[in-house]
Amino acid sequence: MRLTRRAKHRQYAIIAASWFGTRRQARHAMKKPSRRDAGIAAAAVSAEAPITLKLDNAPMSDIAHALASGQVTATALTKAYLARIETYDRNGPALNSVRAINPDALGIASKLDDRKPSAKRPLAGIPILVKDNIATVVKLLRKAGAVILGKANLTEFANILATDMPAGYSSLGGQVKNPYAPALMDDRGIPVVPPGGSSAGSAVAVAAGLCAASIGTETSGSLLYPASQNGLVTVKPTVGLVSRAGIVPIAHSQDTAGPMTRTVRDAAMLLNVLAAEDPLDPATQRQRRPADYTADLATDAMKGARIGVPSDPADPLNDRYYGKLPPRSAKVMADAIKVLEDLGAAIVRANMPTSGWIGGPGTSMNVLNRNP
Hints:
Elements: H1 5-20, H2 23-31, H3 35-44, H4 60-68, H5 74-90, E1 98-101, H6 105-111, E2 127-131, H7 137-143, E3 147-152, E4 169-170, E5 174-175, H8 200-207, E6 213-218, H9 224-230, E7 233-234, E8 256-261, H10 264-274, E9 306-309, H11 327-342, E10 346-349
Parallel strand pairs: 2-3, 2-6, 9-10
Antiparallel strand pairs: 1-3, 4-5, 6-8, 7-8
């Protein structure tokens, strides 16, 4: 039976939504089919190599496996991610996490369709987004075979130019929204649940399944905060592990690029590529790194690890951090610490009072400092 044009678009929209995840999203796709989305989604689904990945939550390591086993091609992946960006970043909840699409992404992907991820090119065919203040790290990603999908939105100039800047806002890209609560906005249009900053776009794009992984940067918290807000894994490398050349800096002594991923393994895979000596950054000449960051990943990796907790229940008057936690947050932290202990980690509790708390008698403290 031949389908009418409208029926075809409806069918393609359902196919796209099945990639994208939930039934609710499928219903949305059926109500508002887009000719552009339909074309991209249809091209992404191949009868010869059906794709079983759910791109809304697929780890990069699974995507690499699908490419290596021939389940999917770089072109199909790139088209599918572009369809998700069009549907969820440009339209729908309008997450605003992607500032610009690389116009050459599909052309690059097509040249990688016959390449499989390997030890030499571990990212072959994998679509990656890069924070919009990064330049030269891209060379390493391309050498590893990655498809640079585009640039991710960020807090304007990494939030160095203004006070009270909303996390994830930029005049070029607009306000990045947290994908878990995109509709919760205050009367000024600022997300009630922040996306984190300044690598907001890099984090949201991964959390929303708009790319396999992304690269962000951090001076102090710009990788960790958005990763925390979006349920991701990140690593802030020691300065000198990843080249700083070509990254717009806030503090050259602290700034570094780092991975934004769904899993620890994905972060290790990216760090394998990013951690390289660069003649343009003298700090990288002193780096020491293992041959393979994934080699030591194991289920018993926490056994014997010493994990510090900045809290001492025996000294409640000076419990500067944990003493402020409301019961619900305190339970979350207690549960997380128990998981680490159950995995064999040694929890080391050591209070870390701030300078305002260690002045002793004669200061403006409300309580006498009893911390030794």
